[in-house]
UniProtKB/TrEMBL annotation:
Residues 126-135 have a biased composition (Basic and acidic residues). SMART domains: PTPc, PTPc_motif. Its main location: membrane. This is Uncharacterized protein. Keywords: Cytoplasmic vesicle, Glycoprotein, Membrane, Signal, Transmembrane, Transmembrane helix. One of its GO terms (molecular function) is protein tyrosine phosphatase activity. Pfam families: Y_phosphatase (PF00102). The keyword Aminoacyl-tRNA synthetase does not apply. GO terms for biological process: insulin secretion involved in cellular response to glucose stimulus; regulation of secretion. The chain crosses the membrane at residues 58-85.
Length: 464
């Protein structure tokens, strides 16, 4: 086979090597002007002396070979031991985190407290050892708060990492995939058709569409925009036993996909200073573990969303204690924060992960479909296997949130093997549940492009 062939070649090379460097034979056999071959050399040197020499060299080579094997075996054993030790500590950490889930025993509380302490210890040592890291992460959070998205250049961020997720294995029907692609290509080339479809979507009337609760005198101050107020028949209601504000109202809508009882998403407006507590109450009561935030905190000096989490350490909002555990900047366009959320009434704790897309402006599009798709893959990798809704919010919770939910819903349906995909009908289904989902024709076009790009990536990743 291949291996043996290589070995023979090497041996051949070594013979030449030996002949050149060996103490008993001092003539060269490499490339030479007179084209003297090994055979000539053998004749000149005499067969017996060469054979004697070669057989000794063979013994030496065998010994070397044996030593190499021994070295490789030792190296393997050392790395295997190292890997096992790492895996075990990793597992221990995982178990710890898992036990935090819904466990209300004092054990879980102790673990939670210990993790918070560890977290603080890590933070303190960071401050001592790596002041640069801290300064940059703070610089970043400040700049995202007061400027138009990320201002610091990527080179100044020390915790940036930017590998991309692969498309997840999918049960997508290949012929549906190809059909979608050719449909999209036609759609994007034929601008008139897109225009017509968008006009039809704009004249679509959701029924029923009364918003009397959201427009009520007491609740109108809890809406960010008057264009997007929740429908009475499709709104999240806060539980009365916790109501600190004498209202069950929050501007957030459950978004159903296949299951009419359990929402797949909650589309919410970005919290106002006066509704931050309501927001965390909703996070708690919906069982949410993943928040998708699609807006910078402000844009051209206009507030888009209140800074509803602690910048460092923990904050208490009514009975919800929120502890910032980590902040990881993936790339210029998005970062991921993880929080420990604790209900101070019951002592229950939960981990909540927030995916924050920084560079998507109101009524605009993300910088590239590829980046948003990578963002979506990271969100879904974190969410995988859960049954709680994902909370998606931007500023009004309809334009950018609607675009994201449309893309995610269509791609999830395709991944489950759906044979018929109608993106416009899916958007109407979303608009039945919340007003203003997908704000502009450009956002709708972006959704089509993003779906096509992901389908293309999945088809490419399939074994041909
Ligand atoms: C909660 O709010 C409602 C009004 O929406 C009020 O009738 C009720 O008394 C409140 N409950 C508590 C415990 O404050
Ligand atoms: C929650 O923890 C505090 C302090 O550890 C304790 O005093 C309180 O009784 C606990 N409450 C519940 C409902 O377990
Ligand atoms: C604070 C705020 O913008 N509130 C709005 C809530 O919604 C109503 C319409 O029902 C608007 O009139 C308010 O301005």
């Amino acid at each position: 086979g291949d291996v043996r062939f290589h070995f023979m070649v090497n041996l051949g090379d070594l013979k030449h090597f030996i002949l050149v460097l060996g103490p008993a034979l001092t003539f060269r056999v490499g490339h030479n002007p007179k084209n003297v071959t090994t055979a000539d050399v053998v004749q000149v040197a005499g067969e017996s002396s060469l054979h004697f020499f070669l057989s000794h060299m063979m013994i030496l080579l065998t010994a070397l070979h044996f030593l190499c094997m021994l070295f490789i075996l030792v190296a393997l054993a050392v790395s295997a031991t190292f890997f096992c030790v790492r895996q075990r500590s990793h597992l221990r950490m995982k178990e710890k985190l898992a036990s935090l889930g819904t466990d209300t025993s004092t054990d879980a509380t102790a673990t939670y407290q210990e993790l918070c302490r560890q977290r603080m210890a890590i933070r303190t040592s960071e401050r001592v050892e790596r002041p640069e890291t801290l300064r940059h992460s703070r610089l970043n959070s400040v700049s995202s708060q007061f400027s138009d998205g990320p201002a610091a250049s990527p080179s100044t961020r020390s915790s940036t990492s930017s590998w991309c997720e692969e498309p997840v294995p999918s049960n997508m029907d290949i012929s549906t995939g190809h059909m979608i692609l050719s449909y999209m290509e036609d759609h994007l080339k034929n601008k008139n058709r897109l225009e017509r479809e968008w006009e039809a979507l704009c004249s679509y009337q959701a029924e029923p569409s009364t918003c009397s609760v959201g427009q009520g005198e007491q609740n109108s101050k809890r809406n960010r925009s008057d264009a997007v107020v929740v429908y009475d028949h499709s709104r999240i209601t806060l539980k009365a036993e916790n109501n600190h504000s004498n209202s069950d109202y929050i501007n957030a809508s459950p978004i159903m996909d296949h299951d009419p009882r359990n929402p797949t998403y909650i589309a919410s407006q970005g919290p106002l200073p006066s509704t931050v507590t309501d927001f965390w109450q909703m996070v708690w009561e919906s069982g949410c573990v993943v928040i998708v935030m699609l807006t910078p905190l402000s844009e051209n000096g206009v507030k888009q969303c209140h800074h509803y989490w602690p910048d460092e350490g923990s904050d208490v909002y009514h009975i919800y204690e929120v502890n910032l555990v980590s902040e990881h900047i993936w790339c210029e366009d998005f970062l991921v924060r993880s929080f420990y959320l604790k209900n101070l009434q019951t002592n229950e704790t939960r981990t909540v992960t927030q995916f924050h897309y920084l560079s998507w402006m109101d009524r605009g599009m993300p910088t590239s479909a590829r980046t948003l798709l990578d963002f979506r893959r990271k969100v879904n990798k974190c969410y995988r296997g859960r049954s709680c809704p994902i909370i998606v919010h931007c500023s009004d919770g309809a334009g950018r949130s609607g675009t994201y939910i449309l893309i995610d819903m269509v791609l999830n349906r395709m991944a489950k093997g759906a044979k018929e995909i109608d993106i416009a009908a899916t958007l109407e289904h979303l608009r039945d549940q919340r007003a203003g989902m997908v704000q502009t024709k450009e956002q709708f076009e972006f959704a089509l492009t993003a779906v096509a790009e992901e389908v293309n990536a999945i088809l490419k990743a399939l074994p041909q």
